[in-house]
């Protein structure tokens, strides 16, 4: 059951929609051997999402070209592709669902999660809020640990 709406927060309906999507994509990723990591990042990962927040996902795969055409997005009901942009080792595919929720999929190789050393951009994304959704080999757990250890050394 959803609670009352809270100012500055997503509606209970939107939270339920995001939760369902996160569960769906985690199950979907678990069925694909080439997906070696899946992270929820950003405001939903750190539980600070606002009413207009998008969902940010980092998908790490050994077969990047397979996910750059967007055909797979139909399985996840991601809706309409509204933007593609390159951010160094990550390619952003931004989708708008029928409900208006925007989902930013960052597609990259496992190298994005390298820990020796951690890339500054990767470090920023992870330390800004990250929740592991799929990590069959423990690569993302190692990345999070490395980022947090590095953060402690800086303080």
From TrEMBL:
Molecular-function GO terms, alphabetical: nucleotidyltransferase activity
Gene3D superfamilies membership: Beta Polymerase, domain 2
SUPFAM superfamilies per the UniProt record, alphabetical: Nucleotidyltransferase
InterPro entries with a match to the protein in the record: NT_sf, Polymerase_NTP_transf_dom
Residues annotated as domain Polymerase nucleotidyl transferase: 33-65
Highest taxon in the source lineage: Bacteria
Name this protein carries in UniProt: Polymerase nucleotidyl transferase domain-containing protein
UniProt source species: Streptomyces pristinaespiralis (strain ATCC 25486 / DSM 40338 / CBS 914.69 / JCM 4507 / KCC S-0507 / NBRC 13074 / NRRL 2958 / 5647)
Lineage of origin: Bacteria, Bacillati, Actinomycetota, Actinomycetes, Kitasatosporales
